[in-house]
Structures are given as C-alpha cells and as structure tokens.
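hey can u check if this looks right to u? its 242 residues, i copy pasted from the old doc so theres a chance i mangled smth
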Amino acid sequence: MSNANACGKKLTSLLKKLPTSEPPVFPDADDPVAVLLMSFLLWETTTEKALGAYQKIVDQIVDFNDLRVCMPLEVMEMIGVRYPKAQERCERIRASLRDIFLREHTVNLDSLKSMGKREIKKYIDLLNGMTPYVSNRVQLLSYEVHGIPVDEQLFLALVSEGVADSGQSVTDLSNWLARQIKSEDGLKTHIAFQQWVESDRGKSQSASKTASKSGSKKTTRKSAKSGHSTKTKKKSTTTSSS
C-alpha cells in the first residue's frame, strides 16, 4: 500500500463511526459447512438476500450432501436466477462441497477441529471454488482464525473512504486490515463492515467508485479511437474455481 500511514488513520476514524450488530442468525450456524454456505450466499450481496436464499435452499434439500450432488442450475432455481452472481456463486458452492467430500468422504469439516490455525487456513483457502471473502469468514466465525473478510463491494467502499488503495487486490487489502485490527476485534469489525456496506452510505460509496471506474473505461475507449492508448490494470478478486 503506497499510503499506509494515511490509510491507517482513515481506517481508525472510520472504525469509530461504524454501526455495531450481531452475526446473522440462521439454522445450524454452529456447523462450519452451514457457515460456508451462508458465506458464499453473502459474498458480494446483502444479509437480507443471503438469509432468504439460505432458507430457500435448506427447505429443498435433505442435507448438505444432497446439496453437493445438485447441479449449479438446480441451486440457481432454488435461490432465483436473478440472485447476484447466481451462476458463478452456485458453481463455487458445488465445487467447494465436492472438494470437501473428496477429502473427507462426507460433507462436514469435523476433521479441522484437531488442526492448528495455519492448517485450518491452508485447508479452507485451497478448497475448490473458494474466494478470499468466504475463506476468511468461515475461518473467523467457525474457527476463531483472525482475518477480515473483504469482497469487491467492501473494497470499493473502503477505496472511496480513502482507507484502501485502488491498486491493491482484495486479498492484499484483507491481509492489511487483519494487521491493523486486533484479533479480538475481528468478528465485530467484520459484522460492522458488512452492515456499513449495506447501509445507504456504504452503498453510495461503492456505487460512486464503480461509476468512476466505468467512466475511466469509457474514456480509455474514446482515447483509443482518437489515436491515443491508455493502459488499465485489472484486479483479480476471486480465487480459482472448478
């Protein structure tokens, strides 16, 4: 991060203003696989939508092994094809559940209870279909492994607040936040960030940055037509999926 000191000061200021809340309550919240599913549903969208989608899924399956064998299109029909990033989300869910089954011969994460935090982090990070946001959230909520879940919507809001550098990746920002925020404050900060992003102010910050990026792309295309070229740098915001 090029302006770490300035960003750190703005982070401290923002944290003082963030709302306080509790993690969303949903069935089987003590089951890491349920947390993984909820985290995938919450990634890049809102708590309200995620809770609704979670309930729709559990109402139509027997258990998580039943969900594992569902094709992505079937899960899309459960949550609604207009759900944000519906196809990608459902493909990632299936890939992660399938990977868990291949490793454990069942769809649960009981084996992680005996692992150290580094082993847990490596295990979840490397699940097929995983994203940094989902991985950090599962580790934080189910295993008390410190980390701050960051998705693109939080990234854009923090950039607009001057807390993050637009040249960073989502993973870089998440790692930086984890170093700035004490481990005992990790969970409440994650919940506060999520609530803030879903608030009118958080939405306006994210929308403003998105509009700015879109305007930049339009300017780039126009310049190219007039004989001038402008290079843009793309950020990768997800890990690999199967």
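The longest helix spans residues 200-225.
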